[in-house]
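To make this tangible, we now present a fold written out as tokens:
***
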Amino acid sequence: MTRAFIFDMDGTLIDSMDGWHHFGKIVAKYHGLADPEYFYQQTHRRSIRQVMDFLCRQYNICLTQEETWDWIMEAMDQYYTTVLPKTGALETVRQLAKAGYPVCVATATRGNSARRVLERLGFGPYLKFLLSCHDIGRGKQFPDVYLLCADQMGTAPEQTLVVEDSYRCGLTASRAGFKVAGVYDPQEKDAVRFKQLADYWLDDLSGLYNRILSEN
């Protein structure tokens, strides 16, 4: 029986993965760097350390890791003012919360940025809390954020459904004993493997509530 829900944010609740996929262009344009396409090509799928090194070497913008994240999120916060919920996301979260299920968000995005966009889009009243990987110091390649969410909701992993659009994150949650719902996102290159891994596979979130209700 599913007793609680952990939702990812980007690509799951909000339609923002295209922005993160092309964040180099967004950041370069926001900060007025020459040739945003070049910056994108040089930073695409690079670590924060690699982005830091490239900024310092190419543009003489030498920042600490924390400052680099601030620099990136300043631009992405502007991008977040335009994003919308994914299909069925807000209604599903509202239905689950009103039915008495604890619902929270576990995100790789910085907490303050995530809270602002979720409040703007109307998710805030239905969420117990939000945890950011930045706050706990470990990314979703580790299960820490999911385990801490479940602990704060008072449920065991096997009673908790993690809803993700990323195969890598879904695999982390599954290995930690959580049930996993995979939400299709066109940016996910491992969708076939994710579909095989997931306990539930969804084209969008609109049918999740009724499926859980029928099985509980």
Observations:
- The chain has twelve helices and six strands.
- The mean pLDDT is 92.
